[in-house]
Amino acid sequence: MQPGFLHFDLRRALKADLMNAAMIKFLPSQDCIRQAFDSLCLQEITWEIVSDAYAGIRGRVVQFYANETLISSSCCHTQTKPRSKQQARWNNQTREYSFNADTSPLYAHNKLIAAALAGEPISLAELKKPFLLPTANLEMAGLSLEILSHLECDIFVEQKLAGLDALWLLCNLVTHTALITALDPKFLSASKIYLSSNLVTQPKSHILDLRNTTWLRYILQKIPLVEVAEDIEADVLAAAFVKSLVGQFGPRGESVILDLDIGISPSSKAFCEALWCEAKLPDTMNEVGPTNAPRSHHLYEVVGHISAASADMTSLSSAMSLHGAKSISYQLVQSEKNTLVYLMRFLVNYERQKEALEAFLIKGNAHAVVIKAVECHELNKRLVSIPLGNGNKTDSYRFYEYIYYDRCVRVEPLLEDLDSYAQKTNYSIDVCRSDLLMAWKKWRGQTVEAQ
């Protein structure tokens, strides 16, 4: 995936499952989601990505399953997964779960999944336990625990969710953090949050509802919030997502949209857009992307003759560089009447054009001087620093990356760092350069897996 930032349009819905469904398209493979569930010992969780449409808009729906049971929140119908290998379809039939103590452990080996399917209330503390396992991915677990901490609300005496609600929240949380970790956006932004005034306001029991208005408002403190009379779907997990990860709320700003997908809710008008964007960067910053054209400068090219008999070209070149001359070159040529002269050529910008021309005519005693406007093109380049080593022996080395549109076409280690590495290791320059380039490839994630 090309580097960029992620923007969510949440004006029509604030739903965690819709955000996940919209993001999945940006990755070529769903292996990161499978690895995330396996690292948390949740191998019994599977999912299907279903294409659907509503009001002429195509979108995606993500469905999670514990074995053959569809995991849905309390606002959705409870359904079963088709036995065929065809993609999942909504069957519009509700089924009440009935488990007994003898069969429920066999249905799900994971205790948390079994308890959730059996309809037992699940607390937020129990949902944190899978992320504390030693096998959990550290980055994903850190994001997940941060999001769960935003769900904690001291207004309620206790925070327990219905079994399927808790399992739905866990599946979407794992998927969201796995996608964010794999996509690695530069930053996240979102539209202003629109919240309906018709959401659940009166608690029906001590079991919390994922759409509880009081819970939503508590999470969305210090976030721009607009309340409207229309029915807009929202859940607390999506609110915790944006509270934890989104750095800017409001218009997307000047950027180029590279890709877009929609997560859709088949049972309502709700849908969420996820946009992968290339930011409009200052001229001093360069990034790989389709709008990153080669750098061009409008300069002046000055060409003139200098007598070979009296000229010290080395001293003159040094003097001209002080007056803004760039790309200085000279060569010995034959002029009129077979006299030998130096043909000197250099570039200068508009601001220092008069200064450089005056020095060329006076200090160089130049004649037959020609000046013309030219366009100078060159590859964009940026300076990056990468780590090399482990623990307390980690050092950083700098590289110049030369980029052309959406490709990095050349990489060169900085000469000072290359010499420092050679002195530290006593290797030859060629070996040191090869080591540093291999470290850069590994850092960029471009190395082939070891056989």
Describe the structure.
With 451 residues, the protein is an alpha/beta fold. The protein has three domains: 5-279, no CATH class; 295-378, Alpha-Beta Plaits, CATH 3.30.70; 380-444, Ubiquitin-like (UB roll) (Roll). Helices cover 29% and strands 31% of the residues. It has 13 helices and 22 strands. The strands form seven sheets. Strands 13-8-1-15-14 form a five-stranded mixed sheet. Helix 2 crosses helix 7, helix 4 packs across helix 7 (163-183) and helix 6 packs across helix 7 (163-183). The two termini are 25 Å apart.
State the shape: elongated
Widest sheet: strand order? 13-8-1-15-14
Distance between the termini: 25 Å
Q: Enumerate the spans where pLDDT stays under 50 for 5 or more consecutive residues.
A: 77-106, 447-451
* Number of domain modules: 3
What is the radius of gyration? 31 Å
Bin the helical content: 25-40%
Report the β-strand fraction as a percent range. Answer: 25-35%
Instruction: Say how many strands there are.
Output: 22
Which structural category fits the helices and strands? alpha/beta
Sketch the major β-sheet.
Answer: 5 strands, mixed
Secondary structure tally, helices: 13
| Mean pLDDT reading | 84
